[in-house]
Amino acid sequence: MNILMIGPSIDAKGGMSTVIKNMYEYEGEDQIKVVSNWHEKHRISLFLKNIFTIRKTIKEEKIDIVHFHVAQKGSFYRKSLLLFLLPKKVKSVFHIHASQFDLFYHEASRRKKRIIRKCLGRTDLIVAVSESWQKFYQKITDTPVEFVNNAVKMPQENQYQTTAKRILTLGRIGERKGSYDLLKVAKIVGEFYPEVVFELYGDGEVEHFRQLTRQLPNVKINGWVDQEEKGELFQRTLLHFLPSYNEGLPMAILETMSYGIPNITTNIGGIPQLIENNEDGLLTEPGDVEEMSHKILQYLGKVATEKARFSEKAFKKVKKDFSLDSYMEKWHRIYVRLMSQ
Fold first, then answer.
1. How far is 202 from 172, CA to CA, in rounded Å?
2. Do the domains spanning 2-151+323-340 and 166-321 agree at the CATH topology level?
3. Distance from CA of residue 121 to its chain's centroid?
4. Homologous superfamily assigned to 2-151+323-340
5. How many CB atoms neighbour CB 140 within 10 A?
6. Can you give the pLDDT at residue 2?
7. What is the pLDDT of residue 36?
8. pLDDT < 50: residue spans in the chain
9. Could you tell me where the DSSP H helices lie in 169-213?
10. Residue 135's CB: how many other CB atoms inside 10 A?
C-alpha cells in the first residue's frame, strides 16, 4: 500500500519526528512517503507548499492513505485544513500525539469546539497513543478511535550500568515538563549524593535555566541531543527523570527503557500503562517534589542487584510490547482494514 505521511520534518526536534522517522525508515510491506508540514526554520513556507501540492502528490505517488501526525493548537488546524483538501477516494488517519489536547479542547470557545469536532469527524480513523487518550477522543467524536502505543528501535542487549552517576532528562525544558520541580529535587538529592549529576537535554527555556542553575553544581543544562548521540549518552545513565504535568506517551521514556534505564516520572497520560511502579520504574504525582526526592534517594541507596532487576524488567517490557516490528505490523493491519471499508 502507498502511504503519505504528513507531519514535522524527520530532522526536527521532538518525539513526533522520531516516530515518523522510525516508520519511514522501516522496511515493511507498505511504501511510505513523508511530506514535511513543519520545521523550526520553515513553518509557513512548508505549510503553504503543502496546500498547493498535496493533491498533485497524491495523484503522482498513487497514494491510498494519508497518515497525519497531529498535536494540538496550530498543528491540529494545519493538518485539518489539508484533510479537507484530500480527494474523496483517499482514506485518512489522524494519529494524535498531543500531550494537552484535553486542555486545548476544553479551553476552546463553543465555536472552536464545533470546528474541532467537525475536523475530527472528517477523518476516517483517529489513532491515540494510549487507552486513556482513546477514551478522551471517543467522548468528543463519532469517528472510530483506536490506540497504538509508540515504539522504538531496540539495541541488541541491555547495557545498563548500575554504577552510573547521571540522572538524565530529555525533551523540552520548561514548566509543562516539570523542569522547575526538577531543580528543587536536584537540590535535595545533592545534599545526600553530591556526585550524582542531573543533566537536561532539550530545547525550550534553555538559557533561562542555565541562569537558574548557577548555584546548583549538580545540574547541567544542555541543548538538543541528536539521535546518533543518544546511544553513548544512555550507556552512562542511571535514571531518566521526567516530572511532567501533561504527556501522551513520551518517546523519551520508551527510548531510555529500551536501553534498560528505569524511569522516575509522573502518573499522567499513557505513562501508567507503560510503567509499573516499583517494578520497572517509579511513579509519582505531578508537582510532588517531596515524593520525587524520596524515591530518587531510595533508588540511589539500592544495591546493584536491585537496580539491575529494575533495568532488566524495563528492557524486556519494551522489547516485548514496544518493538518497532510489532508496531509496524499493527499499522499494516490498520491500513488494510481501512482500505477494505
1. 5
2. yes
3. 25
4. Glycogen Phosphorylase B; (3.40.50.2000)
5. 17
6. 97
7. 84
8. none
9. 179-192, 206-212
10. 12
